[in-house]
Design brief:
alpha+beta, two-stranded antiparallel sheet
Length: 84
């Protein structure tokens, strides 16, 4: 990602949040005792871009099979870990 890409993203979405805050939903979800099997946590402010962990809905793009295949392919290429 270039400096220009980062600058454009900041202009579009606002300042980046601290890494610790971005990680909170991923850390909170496995510790939430009342989370149902299909539950999903995200950030609770600014359309999910900022805030603290809160239950939320998975968007249509998050359920898109083609997008998930591309993400998995990229993750395998980037990490060298192949998932069965």
């Amino acid at each position: 990602m270039s400096e220009e890409d980062i600058s454009n993203a900041i202009q579009m979405y606002g300042p980046l949040i601290e890494a610790w805050q971005g990680a909170l939903p991923s850390l909170y979800a496995p510790t939430e005792l009342n989370l149902k099997g299909s539950g999903f946590f995200g950030s609770d402010s600014d359309g999910g871009l900022r805030g603290y962990p809160a239950p939320t809905e998975i968007t249509d793009v998050g359920r898109d099979h083609n997008t998930s295949e591309k993400l998995l392919d990229f993750a395998e290429m980037a990490t060298g870990v192949i998932y069965p």
